[in-house]
Design a protein that fits this description.
The protein is α/β, with parallel strands linked by helices and 291 residues long. The chain has helices spanning 19-28, 40-48, 68-75, 111-115, 118-123, 135-145, 156-162, 209-219, 251-263, and strands at residues 9-13, 33-37, 54-61, 65-66, 79-88, 92-95, 106-109, 128-131, 150-154, 165-168, 178-186, 196-202, 223-232, 235-246, 266-273. Residues 281-291 have low confidence and may be disordered.
Length: 291
C-alpha cells in the first residue's frame, strides 16, 4: 500500500541501499526521492532546514528493542508522526563479484546485524567480524576494495545499489525479525487521523503517578501497545514517558486525553496515524498515512 500524494524528498540515516531507504520506498512508492544522511541528527536537520520534506527513521526492532536516539530527537523536534511501516529484516552475506565462501576472511556490518547472525559465524569460526557504521556502507566499502577476502552483511537492496554478489541468503538467526519505521514531517494544524496514538508525557514525581495517567485509557477500553521511558536531560532521575495507544474514533479517546492532561505535568501528541500490521515474515507490511 502506498501513501497517497505526490512523491517527495525523504531523508534517512545511512547510505543508498540501507533498510531505511527500502522502508521509505515501500511506504511511499518508487517515485520518492530518498536523501541519505550520515546520522540521525543530520536526518532530522534535513527536514528542519528545508532540504527534505520528511524523514523515515527506525523506532524499534523486534529483537533488539527501541532506537533510543530517535526518541530523544523526536521529542526535541517539532516533527509529527504521519505514518509507520514494518519491514522484515532479511540479511544476506555479500562480497565482491568473484569471491566465494572459501575466500572470505572478514565480515563487516553494523554491530546489530553482526549480532543477529551468530549461526553463520559458528559455521565459519575463522571469519573475523568488523563493525561498520551501517549495513549498506559496509557493502560499498567491500565492493570498492576489490578484496575477495572481505564480505559484508546487509539487505538485498544494498547488493543491487553497490554491485555486491550475494554468497548466502537469509543468514539471520531468527526469521521473525522486523523493524518498525516512522515517517516524520513538520507539524500541521490538522492532525492526521488513525487508529494508533503516540504520546510523550512528563509526570509529577509522586507515588502512583504512572498508574494515574494509564487509568483513563484502561477505563475506556483503549489498549496500551507500548511504553518507553527516557531520562530528562538536566533532571537526574526524572523520566519522560512515551506511550503507543490503540485508539478508535469518537469520544473515548478525546475524553481520555482531556483527563490525561489534568493528571500529567505535560502531554504532547506526537502523532495519530494508521498502525502497520505485519501478517508474517514475507509480508510487505506497510501502512499509509491516516486521512
Amino acid at each position: 500500500m502506498r501513501v497517497s500524494g505526490e512523491p517527495r524528498r525523504v531523508a534517512f540515516q545511512g547510505e543508498p541501499g540501507a533498510f531505511s531507504e527500502e522502508a521509505a520506498v515501500r511506504l511511499l512508492g518508487e517515485g520518492v526521492v530518498t536523501l541519505p544522511q550520515p546520522s540521525f541528527d543530520a536526518a532530522f536537520h534535513a527536514v528542519t532546514s528545508g532540504d527534505a520534506d520528511a524523514l523515515l527513521v527506525p523506532i524499534e526492532n523486534s529483537l533488539a528493542g527501541s532506537v533510543l536516539r530517535v526518541y530523544d530527537l523526536l521529542l526535541g523536534s517539532d516533527l509529527t508522526i504521519t505514518a509507520e511501516t514494518i519491514l522484515p529484516v532479511e540479511l544476506h552475506l555479500m562480497a565482491c563479484p568473484g569471491a566465494t565462501l572459501a575466500s572470505i576472511r572478514t565480515v563487516e556490518s553494523h554491530p546489530m546485524a553482526l549480532a543477529q547472525c551468530e549461526r553463520l559465524f559458528a559455521e565459519h569460526p575463522g571469519w573475523a567480524r568488523i563493525a561498520a557504521e551501517d549495513t549498506a556502507g559496509s557493502v560499498r566499502s567491500v565492493v570498492q576494495s576489490g578484496d575477495l577476502s572481505r564480505a559484508a552483511i546487509a539487505g538485498a537492496r544494498a547488493a543491487r545499489c553497490h554491485g555486491g554478489a550475494i554468497l548466502a541468503r537469509d543468514v539471520q538467526d531468527n526469521a521473525e525479525n522486523f523493524t518498525r519505521f516512522l515517517l516524520l514531517a513538520e507539524s500541521t494544524d490538522a492532525l492526521p487521523r488513525g487508529d494508533k496514538l503516540t504520546l510523550a508525557l512528563r509526570l509529577p514525581h509522586l507515588p502512583g503517578a504512572l498508574l494515574a495517567v494509564l487509568e483513563p485509557f484502561a477505563r475506556r477500553g483503549l489498549n496500551l501497545l507500548k511504553i518507553e521511558s527516557r531520562p530528562i536531560h538536566g533532571c537526574p532521575w526524572e523520566y519522560q514517558f512515551y506511550l503507543d495507544v490503540e485508539v478508535g474514533s469518537g469520544e473515548p479517546v478525546v475524553e481520555a486525553l482531556q483527563e490525561l492532561r489534568r493528571k500529567a505535568q505535560s502531554v504532547r501528541v506526537l502523532g495519530c496515524y494508521t498502525a502497520a500490521r505485519p501478517a508474517g515474515k514475507r509480508s510487505q507490511a506497510v501502512s499509509g498515512r491516516g486521512t
